[in-house]
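Ligand: S-adenosylmethionine. Inputs:
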Amino acid sequence: MTARLSGLLKGAVENDDVASAIGEYEHRYGGEARGGQDLRLAEYRNFVKLYFDLTTDFYEYGWDRSFHFAARAKGERFTASLARHEHYLAHMLGLRPGMSVLDLGCGIGGPQREIARFSGAAVVGVNISDYQVERARKYTEEAGLEHLAEYVVGDFMKMDFPNDSFDAVYSIETTCCAPNKADAFAEVLRVLKPGGRFGTYEYCLTDRFDEEDSDHLRLKADIELGGGLPEIAFPHEVDDALRKVGFELLDARDLSMEAASDVAWYEPLISAGPSLETIWSCRWGRVVTHTLVKLLESLGVVPKGAHRVSALLNTAALAFTEAGRRGIFTPMYFALARKPDEP
Ligand SMILES: C[S@@+](CC[C@H](N)C(=O)[O-])C[C@H]1O[C@@H](n2cnc3c(N)ncnc32)[C@H](O)[C@@H]1O
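Predicted complex:
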């Protein structure tokens, strides 16, 4: 574990720059009153890239190569639940061999490799973080999946692909990073072939969220800053944005409310689980990690500022847990849409 922690933050940001990078992130985009939303929206490219440059190593260390939450059934292993969440999307999109598919905001390619393997479709991942793309390519080569999974560094708000390029498009907890949902969805519509499907798992506030409740507002702000999100939307805003740009909405619902999610999606942030798979993401695992990161930082093993990144992620983890318990937030509002056939 110490060996793995020693490698933190050695790739994306120069050693001497970590402290100033986390300082810039917190002060520019959060601030005392957590009022950095205007800048998060206006400077979303810098905001998102900075966030993932700082946090990717922590995600890999404490979570998995798939950077998302998942519905989970009793007795189901954590990694199996992540894969099931990905397979469900592939199934709802009708993916099969020969199809050409786009993964928006592909992270380090965990879901993409699983979906390519599961469906046989060829998947292109687009990602604004060159550090993550570098990691994705390395893991894809190790898995021998280069023939089905390739990666492009780019902004999904404005992509270089020609119109009507893909049979299907999906996004897993990524269009929540978009500064404007309708603009992001319009770009998806443009690159999809007529009749093609788009499936997305969205971070959303629920109808239990009360804009007059200061605790709710604090939890929302902590999730936004700690999760690299300009602003969290409501489900109806996702549906409206899809329809507004011209999609037909086929299905839309919160998967966290459904039968096969009787283990709460935020459980990996609370307990290590029966098989200890979530040992480093759970509450006491994070305390141990944070203490060790501080120690390694004082010894000069990890860059200065690393413990502040760990603290940022801990704040987010507590906010996700509390918002989940109160039922005011879901990371799995699922929407399935179709691009109309040409007239
Ligand atoms: C929470 S991570 C999810 C990653 C991946 N879908 C997964 O489940 O493992 C969000 C991803 O979206 C990417 N992203 C956010 N905004 C983006 C943008 N405008 N263009 C391209 N990628 C973006 C981030 O770099 C990051 O990889």
